[in-house]
Amino acid sequence: MQFIYFLLFTLLVALISYLATRKTDENSSDGYFLGGRSLTGVVIAGSLLLTNLSTEQIVGLNGAAYKEGILVMAWETLAAIAMVVTAVLLLPRYLKGGIATVPGFLERRYDKVTKTITSALFLSGYVVVLLPIVLYSGALAINAMFGVPELLGVNKTQALWITVWGIGIVGSIYAIFGGLKAVAVSDTLNAVGLLIGGTLIPVFGLMAIGDGNVLEGLQTLMHANPEKFKSLGDAHASVPFSTIFTGMMLVQLFYWGTNQAIIQRALGAKNLKEGQKGLMLAAFIKILGPLMVVLPGVIAFYLFKGQIDNPDEAYPLLVNKVLPASLLGFFAAVLFGAVLSSFNSALNSSVTLFGLDIYKSHINQEASEKQVVRVGKRFGILLALLSMFIAPLIANAPNGLFGYLQEVNGCYSIPILTIILVGYLTRYVPALAAKVGILSGVVLYSISQFILKPFVFGAEHYPHYLHVMAILFVLNAGIMLLIGRLKPRAEPYVAFDSKEVDITPWRYLKPVGIGITAIVIAIYVYFA
Question: CA triplet 269, 33, 106: central angle to 5 degrees?
Fold first, then answer.
């Protein structure tokens, strides 16, 4: 019966996605890569949330909360402020310029080589890190939660391969053959399911603690483990409080404002108003995110008395313990949708980057839009197969997968953010400065985290990686500004106005943005 529920919900999402996208022209770049620039605020919000929320976050952050408490909520709550900044400052410029990819802006601001370097960095991050780890963590969680090895009568390694390929194949169909609109619609439907299912876990968990009463369960939990409900981390925490004012906000701004896999949803908005509505709705829901990705970890710590050896197993074990058997099939489908979303969104963005920024720009400049889409799909199939082969090999990934991902992603996130912000805020900084800035950023961060930290100074005596990101951001921005001073552009950069969509801003943007920011600050003050 559980499998039937899982199958019905999954097929329902696929059917609705097909019906909603069958009239979209998938042979044009806008149709395939940007959903025909027809996405509304609700669809954008749902797609943003599901693209972001997957098993490496649900399992990883709850695992971190199991160890350290709610201080790890910084990854969720501060994201809301980054989305407000993106809606106010970055999205109007993106839509006014009519860009389909973030590197596309860099070509206009700097040159084609800068765009290509950035696209290659995005692709390397997706292919080497994001896609395989999303598949691996998703397969691991589903196998642990729902007993796939026992269900199929295979060992854990075989079950991992089967689940990885199952997720990968279905995700590839959505991303490669459906385009962005199919991804966005399926994301929205799965978002509703995940919000319902994800909320049920802490509810049933608190009921288990409070003998059927949620409020009593919460009071018991807070009284038994008050140290788990402090929002401010010390210097030894995974998220020290001081990092909120340094690298944390830079990482959040990169992720929500410049990361192609995320911002592509807003780039597909039918107008600026809908794009800003989508970002604001997603920001408000993001504030509630700790209820799903932090609180269950604390509940698991109480219920299992802190005796789980691997913190990343806390969430799957909690689900098995508190969720009624009749709901497991539905939750399996929802979790499958969350994994699918992160995978197919990153894959769709990889196809977009390769098709528009590499194939069209360097391999076949005379290619028609239909050719670009066709070649992009073939490239997507190759990436999908590669990631499906790599994913099961990450069986020895370290504990604290979420923090590990954030640290590794710093190799390309801060350099890209640096050249984008400097590009928008200045008019005379030349392409040479962007090339130097992005390459020095990658090299210096790699040396810092993977040579100096482990082999020279030791992890215990080295600055937190979020502080390192902030230091290198300032250093690389300074290098770019110095080059701009010594060798400025011959002519000042003038922003392009494509007039492709209406860029009239949402009238309630500022009060809603201020309200969201105030709520985030109030949460930190309350739990301080």
Answer: 85
- Report the distance separating Cα 51 and Cα 337, nearest Å: 10
The pLDDT value recorded for residue 326 is 76
CB atoms inside a 10 Å sphere around CB 216: 14
What domains are there in the chain, each with its CATH number?
2-19+26-491+506-527 (1.20.1730.10)
Sorted by sequence, the CB contacts under 8 Å of residue 471 that are 6+ apart come out as 463
Return the number of other C-beta atoms located less than 10 Å from residue 15's C-beta. Answer: 10
Distances (CA, A) of 89 to 82, 208, 248, 470, 505: 10, 45, 19, 20, 11
Which residues, other chains included, contact 328 with Cβ-Cβ below 8 Å and sequence gap of 6+? 2, 146, 319
Backbone angles phi, psi at 128, to 5 degrees: -80, -35
* Alpha-carbon span 87 to 478, nearest angstrom: 26
Are 55 and 40 in contact, with CB atoms under 8 Å apart? no
Mean per-residue pLDDT, 300-313: 86
Residues 367-381: what's their mean pLDDT? 79
Crossing angle, helix 260-267 and helix 41-52, to 10 degrees? 170
Q: What is the mean pLDDT of the chain?
A: 83
Q: What is the pLDDT of residues 474-502, one digit of tens each?
A: 999 999 999 999 999 999 998 777 777 88
Half-sphere exposure at residue 178, Cβ-oriented, CA atoms within 13 angstroms: 25
Could you report how far apart the first and last alpha carbons of the chain are, in Å? 46
Structure tokens at 154: 């295979």
- pLDDT at position 21: 52
Q: How many CB atoms are closer than 10 A to CB 459?
A: 9
Report residue 387 as tokens. Answer: 């990631």
Contacts of 446 (CB under 8 A, 6+ apart): 411
